[in-house]
Write a structure and sequence with these properties.
CATH topology of the largest domain: Ribosomal Protein S5, domain 2
Number of domains: 3
Strand content: 25-35%
Oligomer: single chain
Shape: elongated
Number of helices: 7
CATH architecture of the largest domain: 2-Layer Sandwich
Structural class: alpha+beta
Length: 287
């Protein structure tokens, strides 16, 4: 069917371009594609039509945000507790970390509590738990990927048929730890709280000096604080920082503001906390 062909085509394009990320909601059968800018959207649409024979249309684009924890959050699910559906114990602490540091996973548990029979070594267990944690952090409280945090595993217990009464039962498996991890991660995130951060762009405008007033007024309407224009003959250069979504608005307004003679250049400037009501993204089922 067309949806199956579309998934295959997008998967192939994602392999060719690391800036493309494809997500599918198995319940609604909706496919979401993360792209870099409106131009890439047009390119992908044309490529799907020309190379794969698929006529697709995109809904209005949504800016991809991230979440950062705002405080420390701790959570633990105990083996055999009513709230824990899996035969394992996992305790996690999530701490805020420096901006642009990504996700740092740390293991702080007694090695004797680690299921070495399943993971063979402490390093392999730590590596696997890091993978489970990072996967769980792909969707935070608002549905965006969580970043810039340190996650520490503080408790671990496995079930075994010859263990103490409190841990007795059939052997725990790696699947038990993998499935339990997102439950504990979300509990810790809820206690830490997160802030939604949107991408910002460093913008450089080159325009006729006669249009400085109109452009500065346009920037003010977009909430931008611009540096004093730099003049060189009949040309002026203005630099500012704008949320990505507002930079797109400026790009569309620039021809009218500069009689078609303005040029906008931009580069990624990081993420900043969203002012006002944060945007959300629907979480995938089971996430």
């Amino acid at each position: 069917d067309d949806k199956g062909a579309l998934r295959v085509a997008l998967a192939q394009l994602a392999e060719q371009d690391p800036l493309i990320d494809v997500r599918q909601d198995d319940t609604s059968q909706e496919i979401s594609v993360s792209l870099y800018g409106e131009v890439q959207t047009e390119v992908i649409q044309a490529t799907l039509a020309d190379d794969f024979g698929l006529d697709v249309s995109f809904r209005e684009t949504t800016t991809i945000c991230v979440e950062r924890p705002v405080a420390t959050g701790k959570a633990v699910e105990i083996l055999h507790a009513e709230s824990n559906p899996f035969p394992a114990t996992i305790g996690l602490r999530i701490d805020p970390a420096p901006i642009d540091s990504g996700i740092d996973f740390r293991l702080q548990v007694d090695p004797r509590t680690v299921p070495m029979y399943a993971y063979k070594s402490l390093d392999r267990f730590a590596e696997s738990m890091g993978v489970y944690v990072r996967r769980a952090l792909q969707e935070g409280l608002f549905g965006w990927q969580v970043t810039d945090c340190a996650v520490t595993m503080t408790r671990c217990t496995y079930q075994s048929p010859d263990g103490p009464p409190a841990t007795r039962g059939s052997l725990s498996t790696p699947a038990d730890f993998r499935k339990l991890t997102p439950l504990v991660v979300m509990q810790a995130l809820e206690r830490a709280g997160t802030v939604v951060c949107e991408p910002v762009l460093r913008v450089r405008l080159e325009l006729p000096t006669t249009t400085i007033g109109a452009v500065m007024a346009g920037l003010a309407r977009l909430g931008a604080v611009a540096q004093t224009p730099s003049l060189k003959g009949e040309l002026a250069t203005i630099e500012t920082v704008l949320p990505a979504a507002r930079a797109q608005h400026l790009q569309r307004q620039l021809p009218a503001l500069t009689a078609g003679e303005g040029v906008l250049e931009s580069d990624f400037g990081g993420y900043q906390a969203v002012s006002g009501v944060p945007s959300t993204r629907r979480r995938m089922p089971g996430a």
